[in-house]
Request: fold
Amino acid sequence: MRKISILGSTGSIGTQTLEVVENLNSIHVMAITGNSNIQLLEEQARKFHPELVAVMDEKNAEVLRERLADCDIRVVCGMDGLVEAATYEGVDTVVTSVVGNVGLKPTFEAIRAGKNIALANKETLVSAGQLVMDLAKKHNINIYPVDSEHSAIFQSLQGNAGNRIERILLTASGGPFRGKKREELMQVTAADALKHPNWSMGSKITIDSATLMNKGLEVMEAKWLFGVDVDQIEVLVHPQSIIHSAVEYEDGAIVAQLGEPDMRVPIQYALTYPERVKNPFPRVDFTKRNQFTFEKPDMETFRCLSLAYRALKTGGTLPAVLNGANEIAVARFLKGEITFLQIPELIEQTMDAYTVKQEYTLEDLLEADAWAKDYAAKVCFQ
Ligand code: NAD
Ligand code: MG
Reply:
């Protein structure tokens, strides 16, 4: 029986992972973690019987410990708790579904402890792609993509070992503001941006999808996961979100993975690879889903995507700064402190003020992230 830890079990990916686990009936959940939703953590603990539950805040952990006093479950807290869940003995695969750079340290520790990673937390690869991939190689572990596009690429690579990739077609829905120009985006609110046309996700990635930063982060994620150059990755807007991404080989053949937009499918594949296991999730009816369209992303209106390319081309510690600044920009936009169009401005100002290091360690990346967050939190607009 496969044994897993879920970092961020209370989030959108975390709860869907538990739905997959419930349906598979062949996976034991050894550890779960959350930030503040102890009600849900308690329910999950009672249902899935993990040995360990980690909560970020110490007071919340104490409350949960009392609530679970009748169960044989240990409750731990803070970053140490998160790392304990990531490295828990007996676990073979760690699902990294926390949001943001907080996933960096536990992912590193999980790899060092020899765990395979089912990776949803793309921010980790954006900030520390090179270090993560080097460490994974050193410890001989596998990283299975959970992100739908990367799972599609991974699936399109099966059976093609040794064949060179000519191009990756990374599809994007375009988000709720596709086709809009800057003037039309001046007044949009967080509520408008949170209405994603195809996917239901956590708030941070939903805003990232509206700004197209999500696609920028995914270009970096693809570069590291599949070892391709940035100019081999083509972002293709496909508003129907049925083709989840594709690989073009040197003979011109394109292999793609299709399906309804349902994260449970890539989550399941990351957990059952190389097997495919029957599930009751919705199937595509092509007589109804009968129009596929494609367009280029509008990088002038959605400047976050060009900022991501700039960070990727410069490299070094700049992607970590882009990522940290973006986390703050999204949080400030959700609080109503800055406008939608100020999100890229805030990130750009932070990147401009930073001196990039080309040689770096994990500590340097954590420092770059903290510096960017601090800087971005202080920038004021008229
Ligand atoms: P979410 O906001 O729904 O859930 C985030 C989880 O992380 C929660 O369990 C929360 O408790 C935990 N968390 C948040 N802040 C924390 C902190 N400071 N310390 C410890 N734990 C913390 O997010 P999500 O949509 O599930 O996304 C999770 C990750 O997966 C992100 O990196 C996102 O980009 C990626 N992803 C999500 C989807 C999706 O469909 N939701 C798709 C592809 C990739
Ligand atoms: Mg995605």
